[in-house]
Amino acid sequence: MMLRRSVHRGESGFTLLELLVVLVLLSFITTLLIQGMTYVAKVNDTFAREGHQRYLRELAFGWFSDAISQLAAPEQGETGERFRGDPLSFEAVTLSSVDRREGIPTPFAFRLEPEGPAAELIYVRRVEASRWPLLAIAADARFEYLDGQGRWHEDWPPVPELADALPDAVAVASEQERLFLMAPVQMPRRGLALDDR
Fold first, then answer.
1. For residue 188, what pLDDT band results from cuts at 50, 70 and 90?
2. Vertex 135: Cα angle to 82 and 105 (nearest 5)
């Protein structure tokens, strides 16, 4: 008896069509993954940029508030170091300067310089005659000054009788940005001269 071997052709592997389908699916999935990773990278970059801008804004406004909170009033009649301000700038003496000379009376100024659709908030070290651009804010930004009766003024001193006085607070305001940052004068010290350094 003769054994018959049945010859079956065993199909192993993919046909050409199946291989092409698998390659197309893999390329489609790879494309989707790359697009997803690109989108996530862009979103991450946007968050990082916005976070950095928020950090710079908080830092600049923190410096502004610190400098105002530690204003020093000049000796009676000493006109050179009086607090003077208008809507775009003010000059004063502080015990907490931006360059961190704590406790040393330091003359300084803040300025708002319009540049197109924005204004640059600039810190000026008057003794060294150097300028530090801190932040870009809306072009309509301005400084305002609060007197002892709770009234806001565009200029300081609002009347000659207050020439040797400090405002109770200084604010940066902008209607475009819906910004109103008020920095109270916490400890007006009298009788400090720049020679006390």
1. low
2. 30
Nearest-5° angle of CA 152, CA 154, CA 156? 90
The mean-pLDDT minimum among 9-18, 122-131, 133-142 falls in: 9-18
Distance between CA 20 and CA 177 in Å, rounded? 57
Helical residues (DSSP H) of the chain, grouped into ranges = 16-69
**Strand ranges across the sheet with 169-174:** 152-153, 142-146, 169-174, 179-184
Dump pLDDT digits (tens) for 75-119.
776 667 788 999 999 999 888 877 666 777 888 999 999 988 899
Q: Which residues contact 133 (CB under 8 A, 6 or more apart)?
A: 120, 121, 122
Cβ contact 129:117 at 8 Å: no
HSE (side-chain half, CA atoms, 13 Å) at 159 = 7
Cβ contact 116:139 at 8 Å: yes
Residue 23: HSE in the Cβ half-sphere, 13 Å Cα cutoff? 7
What was the pLDDT predicted at 191?
47
Q: Which residue is it, tokens 């600049």?
A: 60
What does the alpha-carbon distance between residue 41 and residue 27 come to, in Å, rounded to a whole number? Answer: 21
Beta bridge partners of 158: none
